[in-house]
Design a protein that fits this description.
Blueprint: H1 15-24, H2 26-41, E1 48-49, H3 59-68, E2 71-72, H4 80-93, H5 100-116, H6 120-133, H7 138-150, H8 154-167, H9 172-184, H10 188-200, H11 206-219, H12 221-231, H13 242-249, H14 254-259, H15 268-288, H16 292-304, H17 311-324, H18 326-331
Antiparallel strand pairs: 1-2
Helix pairs in contact: 1-4, 4-5, 5-6, 6-7, 7-8, 7-9, 8-9, 9-10, 9-11, 10-11, 11-12, 15-16, 15-17, 16-17
Length: about 325
Amino acid sequence: MAVFNDSVKLNPKLNVYFQAVFRCDSFIAREFIFNMRILFSLTFFSLFALTLSGCANTQQATRKAEMGNLLLAEPAPVNPRSQMAIARYNQVLANTAIPDEDRAELLYQRGMLYDSVGLAGLAQFDYSQALQLKPNMAEAYNSMGIHFVQQLDFIQAYEAFDSTLDIDPEYDFAFLNRGIALYYGGRADLAVSDLAEFQAKDESDPFRVLWAYFAKAEIDDVEAKAYLLTVRPQLNDQHWAVKLVDLFMGAATETELLNSLIEGISSQKALTDRLCEAYFYLGKYHSAKGNKGIASNYFKLALSTNVYEYVEHRYARIELNRLRHPSQSDSD
């Protein structure tokens, strides 16, 4: 699930800055594109499924079989268009004659691009610069909050998401992100409210249900399971992630889920995105069951996809840290 509800789209009023750059460096642009095409042609995905073999007579053998039935993909390559776009933004922002409000928008958009290619430090710097120029920028506070969560700086994360909602009370994804911050910050009782608010805005979305479930399960596992039974009929059965909800309910097996992962996939990118999500939630599933080794492997696989902008990729490292230092996560 993409961590932002914003896409990297240029505000039409900022086109004038880019038009000047396009006229100045068309040769450089053509050369860059040519080099990127060469790089892209050398990068490809290889997919394979290891066949489940033998009869699993013990619990240990069953677990090995499930991991052996995984569909694997090579890490997603950095998008050459994103790299080209970053170069454009760099050139435009070098122009000192840009008004502060426009510069803030450009910095935020470049920060989104940096995030999409895994350059978190540069992204966070751009967001902070944007807020200095435009302090009422809700989306920049939201993005800063996400970075604070990843750094386990929960107090600043809460403040950032509070600022987002103070500026724009209808900013839906701030409820998700603040709820996740509260969940990882050891305040599951408060997280339930935000995640329920987010889930109520689209009751057909399985991912919204799963995050609400995780927070509820920290408080009362029996009640959390009952919650899944209550919301399951409202979910969109055409969405592949419904099988994840069924897995946590006990209505589907891990093998059934793994076998369904390629259904409806039409591109290698779509497969990598889905695997990033699936790996993360399978990690959560095994973590809840106390299977730390399998959970750790799944979280590492989620990180290996390089789908940097997804919630699942961003928080897989926090989950690994929770597995390694359970007492520390309990005391947060």
